[in-house]
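From the shared-data thread, chain only:
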Amino acid sequence: MEQFIYKNNKKLRYGYTTGSCAAAAAKAAAFMLLSGKTTGYIDLMTPKRIPLHLQVLDVSRGQDSVKCAVQKDGGDDPDVTNGIWIYAEVSYHVQVPKDKSQKTDPGALDSSRIHIDGGKGVGRITKPGLEQPVGAAAINRVPRQMICENVLEVCTQFCFTGELQVIISIPEGEALAERTFNPRLGIAGGISVLGTSGIVEPMSEQALIDTIRVEIRQKLANGMKYLLIVPGNYGLDFLETYGHGLRLEDAVKCSNFVGEALDAAAEFGAEGVLLVGHIGKFVKLAGGIMNTHSHNADARMELLTVHAALLGAPVPLLSQMMKSVTTDDALSWLQKEGLTARVMERLTERMEFYVNQRVQNRLEVEIITFSKVYGVLGQTGKAKELSEKIAGRNHESSHQLPV
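Structure, as tokens:
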């Protein structure tokens, strides 16, 4: 693609999704099957209304089928699927089960005439809570719709009124799946065919938010009532080191999107959320900053310093805190003055106020914040109780949260 977007003063090129590749390959295979001709390129209109003109690769013909591939181009987005070949095989005959023990893909019947399923390298749904039902190929709703619409367009072009089967396969999919969230989400055997707009926007925050929402919805659908949410690896390392009966596999990583994770938890019906995070990110919550990326806001030293000032810290100490580069540096000055506990008590109260404001008291939210140097710095009143609910009686640890 030769369309661009500017982000952080950089010119970045758009790409196109695995869903667009699957739809384009299916359209090309259907064209070659019904026309008897071969084509080297295929045109596709994406849901974003950006047209694509894509090369058709590795064409092979069977007696009643045609198979071909389209290569994924993720543009300037860091994407593990960039460059892979996505195949579609289109045939006249849909395989019908001969007995009740043979089952079709629960998500395969996408119209009365176009039947879609996944082949090698396309994952299978093994847990409820995802967009497709358990047992279905991990081909999401919009890519299925794109495949259907484009194959039906070819059927109309050649006045074909019968049924076609479309099998999407990704030879590299099984190996690539280990580098994605799929195993964690309950998608086995390959990657997912994704995309809501058909276009990959480089460095898109929405793609990460969508992944967080999927994981939250899936955990709730699998019986969790209370969620454990951590921004990233510091939070996971803390859980692994200190235990508290909380399991790493129960945690949802929200990156910088604390607010969006809380929104999703409320939307999908969670009863409570335990937020566990490093003070370097969570101090921002005390200022109502729910996207903790430094590009959006920082204010770490300002928040620490103003609460120290309200407790009477001397001006020279406040000046040193404001010059600090990291929160641990600033905390070291509080330690010298014996103010750490009192400052953290104030900050934790403000964190609690703003997260409850975000969820409008629709669910219980508790917070634990820590430092890799100083350990647990603050926690809200029922954090220990909520951690025990999440851990479950069978997973209690000998390490208990400080009272």
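The chain has two domains: 4-200, 207-395.
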